[in-house]
């Protein structure tokens, strides 16, 4: 290993008399090499680097612009959706209130109609009862009248003879004639 380092050390002591050679002094050659490399890169790579940076800048700006447009579109859609939601909620509240009031109105109408129907049925029942009572009373009267008439006819037929019968008819005709004269 000593031979290898000796050979580098001996190369480092070359005379600098205008000949071309290698400078192996690392501390002296690095800044020069770096400045030459950087100078070449800046000179030749300036356009490429500028184009790359400009393209990157344009892509970033386009992305920002697209994002802003998408954001504005999303905000507009959100506002439209909120407005539509508010409108639908108002309509739902209106339908709910109208529905409740309609249900209450129908309930009241149904109660009133049922009450009216029950009242009519009660009236029909009462009329039917009165009619049946009157009919029963009339039937009883008619039967009593017929029985009384038959009893009276039986009594008259058994008690009356033809002369008494003739006098009763004559008296009744006289009464009827007198009544006729009074009314005329």
From TrEMBL:
Subcellular localization, as worded in the UniProt entry: Membrane; Plastid, Chloroplast thylakoid membrane
Molecular function per GO = proton-transporting ATP synthase activity, rotational mechanism
| This protein's UniProt keywords | ATP synthesis, CF(0), Chloroplast, Coiled coil, Hydrogen ion transport, Ion transport, Membrane, Plastid, Thylakoid, Transmembrane, Transmembrane helix, Transport
Q: Name one GO cellular component term.
A: proton-transporting ATP synthase complex
For whether the record's keyword set contains tRNA processing, the answer is no
**Where, if anywhere, are coiled coils annotated?**
64-98
Q: How does it sit in the membrane?
A: Single-pass membrane protein
A Pfam family cross-referenced in the UniProt record is ATP-synt_B
Q: Where are the transmembrane segments?
A: 32-49
**Does the record's keyword annotation contain Transmembrane helix?**
yes
Provide the family line. Belongs to the ATPase B chain family.
**Subunit relationships:** F-type ATPases have 2 components, F(1) - the catalytic core - and F(0) - the membrane proton channel. F(1) has five subunits: alpha(3), beta(3), gamma(1), delta(1), epsilon(1). F(0) has four main subunits: a(1), b(1), b'(1) and c(10-14). The alpha and beta chains form an alternating ring which encloses part of the gamma chain. F(1) is attached to F(0) by a central stalk formed by the gamma and epsilon chains, while a peripheral stalk is formed by the delta, b and b' chains.
Further facts: In plastids the F-type ATPase is also known as CF(1)CF(0).
- What does the UniProt function comment say about this protein? Component of the F(0) channel, it forms part of the peripheral stalk, linking F(1) to F(0).
Q: Which HAMAP family does this UniProt record tie to the protein?
A: ATP_synth_b_bprime
Q: Which PANTHER family match?
A: ATP SYNTHASE SUBUNIT B, CHLOROPLASTIC
Q: What is this protein called?
A: ATP synthase subunit b, chloroplastic
User: In which organism is this protein found?
Assistant: Androstephium coeruleum
User: Taxonomic lineage of this organism?
Assistant: Eukaryota, Viridiplantae, Streptophyta, Embryophyta, Tracheophyta
């Amino acid at each position: 290993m000593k031979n290898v380092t000796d050979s580098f050390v001996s190369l480092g002591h070359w005379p600098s008399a205008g000949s071309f050679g290698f400078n192996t002094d690392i501390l002296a050659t690095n800044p020069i090499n770096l400045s030459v490399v950087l100078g070449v890169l800046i000179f030749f790579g300036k356009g490429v680097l500028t184009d790359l940076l400009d393209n990157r800048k344009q892509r970033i700006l386009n992305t920002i612009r697209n994002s802003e447009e998408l954001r504005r579109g999303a905000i507009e859609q959100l506002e439209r959706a909120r407005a539509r939601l508010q409108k639908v909620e108002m309509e739902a509240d209106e339908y709910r209130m109208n529905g409740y009031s309609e249900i209450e109105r129908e309930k009241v109408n149904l109660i009133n109609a049922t009450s009216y129907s029950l009242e009519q049925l009660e009236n029909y029942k009462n009329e039917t009862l009165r009619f049946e009572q009157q009919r029963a009373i009339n039937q009883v009267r008619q039967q009593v009248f017929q029985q009384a008439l038959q009893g009276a006819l039986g009594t008259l037929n058994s008690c009356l003879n033809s002369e008494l019968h003739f006098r009763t008819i004559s008296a009744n005709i006289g009464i009827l004639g007198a009544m006729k004269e009074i009314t005329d």
